[in-house]
Amino acid sequence: MSDQNFDIVVLGGGSGGYAAALRASQLGFTVAMIEKDKVGGTCLHRGCIPTKALLHSAEVADVSRESAKYGVTNTFGGIDIAAVTAYREGIVSSKFKGLEGLVKARGITTIPGEGRLTSPTTVQVGDDTITGKKIVLATGSYSRTLPGLEIGGRVITSEQALALDFVPKKVVILGGGVIGVEFASVWKSFGADVTIVEALPHLVPNEDEAISKQFERAFRKRGIAFNLGTRFSGVTQDENGVVVTLEDGKTFDGELLLVAVGRGPATQGLGFEEAGVTVDRGFVITNDRLETSVPGVYAVGDIVPGLQLAHRGFQQGIFVAEEIAGLNPQVVLDVNIPKVTYSDPEVASVGLTEAKAAEKYGADKITAYDYNLAGNGKSHIIGTTGSVKVVRVNDGPVIGIHMIGARVGELIGEGQLIVNWEAYPEDVASLIHAHPTQNEALGEAHLALAGKPLHAI
Ligand SMILES: Cc1cc2nc3c(=O)[nH]c(=O)nc-3n(C[C@H](O)[C@H](O)[C@H](O)COP(=O)(O)OP(=O)(O)OC[C@H]3O[C@@H](n4cnc5c(N)ncnc54)[C@H](O)[C@@H]3O)c2cc1C
Hints:
Number of helices: 13
CATH superfamily of the largest domain: FAD/NAD(P)-binding domain
Number of strands: 24
Helix content: 25-40%
CATH class of the largest domain: Alpha Beta
Distance between the termini: 73 Å
Bound molecules: flavin-adenine dinucleotide
Structural class: alpha/beta
Shape: globular
CATH topology of the largest domain: FAD/NAD(P)-binding domain
């Protein structure tokens, strides 16, 4: 049993927690980070990094299948899942090693074990009491399911999907959001027969509707089946497979059912409410400076209502450390956080959709321009179709950018600068995009909105 005192105690070592710890130590604070599993959290071990490695293997499979189109003779021999796993695990373990080294080099004390908030300044880990002048809650999230839908056997979540040591022949995926469509994309590229079931009227339903519709066309063309607008009713499983039933009585069968219906906040039983922290449906409620209802206790990452993304967690972690240091950091609204779906095709967006912009400013006060990637040389070279849509306030700044096509995720860095710096299309149009790049499509859309389209009508 021991008492340990720090300036800042961070509960949870995922994207949000470790970013807070790294920035706080940089600012001269003494920091303890309590982690019950592995520093890096969901993103590094079970989320962003391993799924993107899988998606890269999937892309290589597709390139290999289509190589004759580019004049390269090659015979696609299939997927060696053990080698895919070794590649994926190699990436994760190397990033994990790097992160551990960084945390150590910054002088952060990592405390292994499960922590519980016992007062506004203390966290209990086993017999040890860890005291902080300030506390940062960063306990992350878990795969949710639906009432009455039990995970087990052939009904799996993304954690088990990542760990599969075989390629399923036929899969049903419940949920057409980012995690569902990324796994659909991987499994289709690996040769599986895939059906997505989504209760909302569109796949990637949080995106601009025009992008969702293009996405659906692209998935249809790839032979990925989906059923939209009807809710799940039940599932049965036996040794041969699963049968999924919808509320309209339609059924879908497969070897597995992947449940990808979102992520819930991991806050239960951790003493938050007992310590006075306001929690709503499991989420920790904060003010816009990320301070909870208990002064001196902050929250970051997936437990804070809003977009559940690693880079939001990083930003919030940095924000809280700087806030505690009195540096008055700038708030970034969720709407201005870039989002990428890494399937084939990719989807990337930042800011308001055209519909939301019309709602906020009035339909006659905004203009949207959709640049078709058919006019972009580099996109044609790499064989992708898609579009870049830019929404502006008339005589005002760009407030939304929405893209679909291979590799468009790499373009969102520029997109988020344009939106967050409140650039006018005229500002962007006068600057230069290298030729031939896909970035030129962004340039062309801004040229068009500035009234001087180059390679467009
Ligand atoms: C399949 C999948 C793919 C994803 N892909 C992307 C992507 O491409 N891009 C992206 O931006 N986001 C992606 N995400 C989301 C991203 O992983 C999360 O937004 C991010 O990990 C949230 O960070 P966090 O710090 O809030 O929580 P987490 O990363 O979940 O970390 C929380 C940590 O706290 C620890 N912990 C919890 N309770 C305690 C306790 N009581 N004591 C001690 N330790 C505790 C946990 O062990 C964990 O390590 C993906 C998620 C999934 C599941």
